[in-house]
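ARCHIVE CARD
Drawer: 12
Card no.: 0347
Subject: one protein chain, sequence and derived structure
Cross-reference: see card 0346
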Amino acid sequence: MNGPALQERPPASASWRIALPHSAAAVPVARALVRTALADLEHGADSDTAELLTAELVANAVEHTAGDSPIELVVELRPSGCQVEVHDPDPKPPGDLTRPSGGEPDPWQEHGRGLLLIRALSSSCGHRPTESGKAVWFRLPVVPPQWRPA
């Protein structure tokens, strides 16, 4: 077989793992961690998009899982880009993360666009079971230097 098996994960050049409270207060903390990780290493992934998608994953974990068990944020920086995972205690997969479940979201509703944003703006996304629930993740590629803001 050429290259790594699909189940293998490429090694991270740097990674962070932090437990977050099971509350809305976790969203700005998660955004700040992603922003800091990408800025401190002058990593080439799109920080604004990474923050937005991280906020969506964390908000979904808080809103759609019961209890007050902490959720966990994992940020991995790789030569090819970054991967962000949010771990929560609910083993049930997110509804339509990898396959859209129907028509367009209702423009009059506040909710229903988070997973659409993740699918549209990430290079890949998905979920996997963990020992204590599931991890939902997205990847962003490195932005070529000529496309980065000056």
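Annotation on reverse: Residues 1-8 have pLDDT under 50 and may be disordered. The first strand starts at residue 14 and ends at 20.
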